[in-house]
Amino acid sequence: MQDAGLRRGAENLLVTCGGLRAGDHLLILQEDPASGYYDAAIAGAVLDSARALGIKAQAEMLPFDPMGAALQSDLVARMKAADRVLFLSRCGDQIRFNAEMQGIRPIMSYALDAGMLASGFGRANYQGFVALKDAVNALMASAQHIRVTCPLGTDFSGPGAAYPKSGAADVAVTRFPMSVFAPVPVQGFSGVVMQDGFLVGTGSKFYDPYGCDLRQPLAVHFEGSVLQRFEGDEMDVHCARMHYARVGQQFGLDPMTMHSWHAGIHPGCAYGMAAAENYERWSGAAFGNPRLMHFHTCGHYAPGEISLNVLDPTIEVDGAAVWMDGVFDPHLVPGGADVLAQFPCIRAVFDAPAQAVGQGPGGRLAG
Hints:
5-stranded parallel beta sheet, 8-stranded antiparallel beta sheet, Rossmann fold, alpha+beta, globular
């Protein structure tokens, strides 16, 4: 018999998020568990729950392409024939900003294993977190001034989010669980980001080496979309310059660019491994915790190719610390208290937030 928590997480994914009903067709595209990214148990749990709900579910293994090549036409045809497509594969992350996916309605799971699906991260009501994300988007868009700091010295600020007139720029793939607000464009922002531990990729393309270890916190200065300079340990500065230059050259883009930033909104998101054990997996799973905010850099597009990550940010919106040292307070977001009142399962994860976000010895995001 399936664990009750795992069943509730799977139903939250299939029904609350996916909107699937008995008789609907679900196609699951699964990455080989041997890659060490998704475990085998999560696909089995979703299949079992889907079939118990009368959903016609089938799974197929999808070869992973580190460079994110276009999906083959016969696969796209099978995706279009399904009512929903679930990616238990990094391929779903690689296409998350691809507008062509909107007609296919794919879901990308950031619950990477059965434990994450069965936890508060997977069980907390999906639609409630969508409402919370929309409320944060509205807050950021209406703000007059936003300032972000952190214990290591991050300090940058700017106006409210300059989202496009059509609304907050967001991904074309449904994300499960919903764990970040829409990326805030960097127009009008400037300051310094203190990057601790390592530089890492964004999940767009998986190049080698994917991470660049840092000895000490590295100061990354920027103004608007321009990444101006690095300051810190001499070897770290050299390595950062070389890493950005190499990635930019590999993909034919201007490396010294900043595009946008956002932070986690889901305190149920926990990542128990040290980030340095598997940079690829960490960058695709830990970011939803409010203890982390990140920049999309190295490319004039989201998500860029290199991510800057800040631990325990304080994000002040018009003087109110909506995030304080990595603790997100939804009561400071108009409509946030209503979400907590309507969904006790969401209130529960805020009452007991996960603290594990991939820290190594000493609690740092050490490489």
